[in-house]
Amino acid sequence: MRVILSINAGSSSVKISVYAAEHGQAPSQLAEAQLSGLTSPPAELKYSRKDVTVCKDKKVGEDVKSQDDAFKVLLKTLVEDSDLAEISKKDDIAIACHRIVHGGDYTTSQKITEDTYHHLEALTDLAPLHNASALEIVKSCMAELPKATNVACFDSQFHSSIPEHIRTYPINPEIAKSNQLKKYGFHGISYQFITNSVSRFLSKLPKDLNIIALHLGSGASACAIKAGKSWDTSMGLTPLAGLPGATRSGSVDPSLVFHYASDVGKLSPSSTKELHISRAEEILNKESGWKALTGTTNFGIIAASDEPKHKLAFDLFVDRICGFVGSYYVSLGGKVDALVFAGGIGEKSDKLRRRVVEQVSCLGFEVDDALNGKQIEDVVQDVGKKGAKHRTLVCLTDEQFEMARGCAEDPELK
């Protein structure tokens, strides 16, 4: 039995799931710890051991400002828990797998060596707002857990199957190649989990599965999955393209940013020696989305409100989602087994699911109001109307499990 840590660093939180795994078998979760509110202190700790809630929304007294600070607090919490017998000391941890948003041309997860680490550092400019904090945690893991194997699991690797004509941008090919400018796609760890889970639910092999999957959260994307592999996805070179999010604009006219402000080409004052962010990137990634439209990043508030600004943000999100559903339906030639909602909003907002499905009902999707109104508790749950041409499902996606599963099945990590 090996202990695997699955580490998922978000923009304002860090989550660690702890698994016990035998090689080649599905991992079993032992514990989960999360520190959230890094951008709006004080940070809060949530910690559970199997089915026992140890603490919830506990204010953390330590000075926690970065994802790396949060990781160190979480690791300390796990190691010092006398009831978590599987981790009595740091050396009990065999594998630490890390969610890295941008993996460039890596098509599989990678053991992190010094060379791999430096290669990932070089990719930071392609995802400056995402890779840097994850790599800080990798560096800490290498120092704090010297006996553990560190593995990078990339959000982009699932999309390496996207065909050339879809991933290519119509720009100078030589410049595109030398600067690595193409569609990479993200949320791939989630889409891999969704593909595996839905194929089991529908009793189909992944190679026989065609779905349109929607990962909808503060970061949101859509993916056309053909024969169990990514065929197209809404995010592109970076996670900015496609659907709007809590603070991201999603796709806009590329010229818009130059009309927005005069200093967009300059480095943002929040740039550091390691992290170069232009004002344009900062505006479109951190000062847009439904926060810009409504003043809140909480989509639950937006969905429940009749205020004009909230209604506008809700309708805009539904419209953009439906645009991708229609496009991918055509791209898949109408051969679609299911429309699948996932991510925090996809799982929790029955109102959003209903509105999206109503708007794309001409394609053969229908929602059952009674099923759609139920709490989502199963890994995959049907919310579609019986007899509809295509299924409508909700999937409780689990990126940490998917990373641990990949490590447990990797022959090189025996």
From TrEMBL:
Mg(2+) binds at residues 8, 399. It comes from the Eukaryota. Keywords: ATP-binding, Kinase, Magnesium, Metal-binding, Nucleotide-binding, Transferase. The active site is at 155 (proton donor/acceptor). Substrate binds at residue 99. Transmembrane segments: none annotated. HAMAP family: Acetate_kinase. This is Probable acetate kinase. It comes from Neoarthrinium moseri. The lineage of its organism: Eukaryota, Fungi, Dikarya, Ascomycota, Pezizomycotina.
